[in-house]
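Exercise: predict the fold of this chain.
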Amino acid sequence: MINEKELMEFVKPYYEDKDIMHNMWHMELVKKSVDKILEINNYDVDYDSLVIAMYFHGFIYSDEDKIRAWLKKQNYEEAKIEKIIKIAWESQRSEEPKTIEGKILHDAHVLEGGKNYLIVKTLITGSLRGQDLQETLEYMRENVLNKNKCYLKETIPLCNEMNEVTQKFFNDLIEGIS
């Protein structure tokens, strides 16, 4: 069972210095997406591991050792620790998830905020990185357009729609400013 208070105390510092699109609000949006996916299809999942991994997905790539140490301190068994770590890694956009929890978290991460959110997130993070619009659009062309993929039968159409909306927005904007 998750000790939510201790989990929040551990993860909050990792998100405090992140930009507005990757902070704790981002965690709330991903959790909403996780819960929506679980509403659509009643998957038999290890919900505790899924939620814990969700909170680690934003820093698993930089602090896996600290995460493991914290989980051990919380008296999680080694098999549970390995499962949580695997799910957190599988949630990364560039990964191809194998576990059902990893697929759910991966797809929830891709679909957070709905079909227009990817556009907003890209524009805001570009601005936060100090990019001008042209640089952000180039980044979008190279790293965002049709780069998102989902793995669950109920999320694939949602992802396709999001990719189509993003592509149309991009094309319309390029046409309008060219």
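Check your answer against the key: The radius of gyration is 17 Å.
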